[in-house]
Prior knowledge:
This protein is α/β, with parallel strands linked by helices. It has helices at residues 4-8, 14-19, 72-84, 103-112, 128-136, 151-158, 163-176, 195-204, 231-247, 262-274, 279-289, 326-331, 336-342, 350-353, 365-372; strands at 2-3, 42-46, 90-93, 117-121, 139-145, 180-187, 209-214, 254-258, 298-301, 306-308, 319-320. Helix 3 (72-84) runs parallel beside helix 4, helix 5 crosses helix 7 (163-176) and helix 10 (262-274) runs antiparallel to helix 11 (279-289).
Amino acid sequence: MIIFSKVLGDKATVYDALRAGERPEGDLPDGMLRFSRTGKPVVVWNVTKRCNLRCEHCYLDAAEPEADELSLADFGRTMVDLSRCGVPLVIFSGGEPLLRRDFLDILGLAKDAGLRSVISTNGTLITGDMAERLAARGVRYVGVSLDAAHPEVHDRFRGVDGCWRKALDGVRKARDAGIRTGFRITVTRDNYRELPDLLELALRERVERFCVYHLVPTGRGAGIMAKDLDRSQREWVLSFLYEKAIELRDRDIEILTTDSPMDGVYILERLKREQPERYEAARRMLALGSGCTIGSKVANISHRGDVTPCHFAPEIVLGNVRRNTFSDIWNAPGSPLVQGLRAMPVGLTGKCGRCDYTDVCRGCRKRALFGSGDWMGEDPACIYDPPPGAGHAHMAGK
């Protein structure tokens, strides 16, 4: 997660970010959790595989529910364990999480355990009554997938006519219930030019977060990687977000990207040219996020209870919460591959291995696997070219 608004728009000072790891996690706003030095991961929990849409890029390949989805008792037991081991945030996702009939009960268990809860949803099932119920169960934020300002573009990508209007209505209902809201946009060659109009829509709707997701080759996403942005398109997107984060610094909206730690490198290289006096402080803040943190600051629990080091890495199963506690699974040494991922930047190869920005990036490991067949290989989407002789010996501030 690269929060353009924090680095460029002073939404939170560099000093605050640097001190985040020294403050109790309960005192940190959700947007700062990736900047914390805590060793506990944010957990993405896919509570169901069922979905009412058919999105082209779905990393879970969501469709019909499976018979072996976790029970409410499984959720309750694991919630208590997550709380005891200090997990700072749980992101409930799917499929579409609101399709679980007991989802409100699941949220109640999270609240009772003292966990911070946010929801990743397509928004189409958020009625006024549902929004009030979500708020009552302590939901802090609802991120709604909205990939275009024009309904036909969004509906085509999400596979169901009329879902754009339902999604936007869901955003409004959540906002009116007092829940923080955000747009979640997956950019491809089909929709990246929608970003200006979509940002204007977000401003009109008083949406507080504008989160741009890059395409990741997991699930159905692997089948549409030909739609991933090329170098010039990616530069256009990053330039747009960079300039808007500065322009909108006084507006109540946060601009960020995810699934592309290289975006932090883009920010730093541009600061080096345009505002060199801000470069080192920005680098120190971005380094707290550490770029790709697969297996360390992020974890996933699947609808079946499998624990994996990232929601985009279902191939690496560390254990199952039906048989062992999450804390025992997470704290186990793991396989040599898991140990290698947690030891990054040590072991990175290709362009990532010789990069001088591994303190803030390290590439996306799933895109590296897709591009080279090697989890530790280079990220093929990276647009930064390390200078000859570069390496990862840089220490920010030295």
